[in-house]
Amino acid sequence: MSETADISHDAGGRRRVLRFAGNLTLLRVRKVSEELKQVQDEALDVDISDVERMDTVGAWLIHKLQRDHGARVIGASAEQQLLLDQVAKADTPMQVRAEHEQPMLRLVAEVGEATKTAMSTMLGLIGFFGSLCMSAWHLIRHPRRFRFNAVVTSFDMVGVRALAIIGLMSFLVGVVIAQQGAVQLRQFGAEVYTINLIGRLTFRELGILMTAIMVAGRSGSAFAAQLGSMKLAEEVDAMRTIGVSPMEALVLPRVLSTVLLMPLLGFYASIVALIGGGLLCWISLDIPPITYVQRIREVVPMTDLWSGLIKAPVFGMIIAMAGCYQGLQVRGDAEEVGMRTTAAVVQGIFLVIVLDAFFAVFFTEIGWV
Predict the structure, then answer these.
(1) Is 159 strand, coil or helix?
(2) CATH class as words, domain 5-91
């Protein structure tokens, strides 16, 4: 059996005949391929009746002669012809036509997908809240399992390290409220009512709401990133393996610290906002600090303070739950940690604003206006 690929030329007749012999395989066709580069564009007949073996590389050489020179293949066996047909079929360019989707249908599909994701996330949060309640009840029954050090560590991250940024933000918010309120009320000669605006808006809404947004962006994202990294490193699975509940060791301390610290941070933010508004009233409106404080005591009812302190722990629980839930949902790679962290912040802020609207209606209905 011949082990080499060979080619011979026959110029007799009107068509040039190329006769192949031997093995047209990957290891044997290099010499043949060099000779085929010299073939000119002319009528060709390719005789492969003496070819003993042919693989896809050899079939590709024959197909190129058919494609580029219009050659006719002679003497191909059934197996060789089948291989040539498969190579020719693979060389046919696929006509990929992008499907045109109507904009309205795409919009409806995206809205439906977003609604489905929102509903599944809401159901997941409800189930997560149930698991959290069960873990809290278990700790009440077995107080020795309570991790005090984990709670204190969360206190430091959620509360102590956030005082500076929350204080600066609240001070500037108070200044902005005072300045904009004074500009608008000056048109009616009622600049003194700027104090009413600062006091009621700060204690009732903005002090707690802005604090919740800041905690969601700072602590909620940190919770999601920490738990997501632990999930990727399989530390959460290792805790379950050794009999430690991740809800008790990781989630509950973070939720408890956020719930306890949110009223304190909200009250702190309200006081700092009052200081910022009072400073601007003193500078721009010539209202001395004593008058400012007396006016605040007259116009701000205690119900405004209680409404803010009631909302604060609920906001804290929502923020911590969203961060921990998204962190524990991390699957796959590190890219999803960033995606889940972003989702935790967005969901936390969204739920806080929605709940704040419900609280506003509820307090109005019970007469806390």
Answers:
(1) coil
(2) alpha beta
